[in-house]
Amino acid sequence: DAGVTQSPTHLIKTRGQQVTLRCSPKSGHDTVSWYQQALGQGPQFIFQYYEEEERQRGNFPDRFSGHQFPNYSSELNVNALLLGDSALYLCASSSTGEAYEQYFGPGTRLTVT
Amino acid sequence: SQQGEEDPQALSIQEGENATMNCSYKTSINNLQWYRQNSGRGLVHLILIRSNEREKHSGRLRVTLDTSKKSSSLLITASRAADTASYFCATNLYGKLQFGAGTQVVVTP
Question: Closest Cα partner for A43 from B47, B67, B36, B58?
């Protein structure tokens, strides 16, 4: 049973560019959440997708957007990249019927230069 | 902003000793979860305690929750070098996890 997978593992972008990160949830999970983790900090909630719609959102600007596909996989898009967007981006999946226990992927390390 | 605060920020112990870390939070919760992270990679779920539970055990882990004080503690007994990692508490309200800044634990052989 595959766990949560994310791609790519590492990414280097230039300020002002756009980036797309991808996540496949654990088998049987229908909810995907995205988190940003800056160096030395705990993860910060970006948003959550369920039934292809954004269900909750954290305190992130509109430059951060997402999408969920019918197979429950998800993308995180970040436009007009800033140096401060450099972080580890974590995807987590869960099943709505299991007390929201979330399973995390290995993350995508984004560096903005 | 971070919901929870872990204490201490860092902990250094020897193998076989117990490690205790605490977490305080600010708002209502459905449950509280503890995670481990090795070397800045993905988080591994350790244990979940519901808001109506006071104590929970899983292997060498013991978690307590005091909702009146809005605090939780994680005890790792008989620590091993492989327990070296960062530990995070996360409050959960309707599926939205809010993490603290974590406790860095180093276990030396």
Answer: B36
pLDDT tens track for A88-109: 999 999 987 555 788 999 999 9
Whether the link from the prior residue into A8 is cis, omega within 30° of 0, is yes
Six token digits for residue B85: 């990692």
Subunit contact A100:B1, Cβ cutoff 8 A: no
Determine the pLDDT at residue B52: 94
- The residue with tokens 């019927």 is A97
The neighbour count for residue B81, using CB atoms within 10 Å, is 11
Distance, in Å, from the CA atom of B35 to the CA atom of A51, rounded to the nearest integer, reads 26
B99/A58 touch (CB, cutoff 8 Å), yes or no: no
Q: How many CB atoms sit inside 10 A of residue B3's CB? A: 23
**Residue B87 corresponds to which tokens in the numbers above?**
């530990």
DSSP B13-62: EETTS-EEEEEE--S--SEEEEEEESTT--EEEEEEEETT-SEEEETTEE
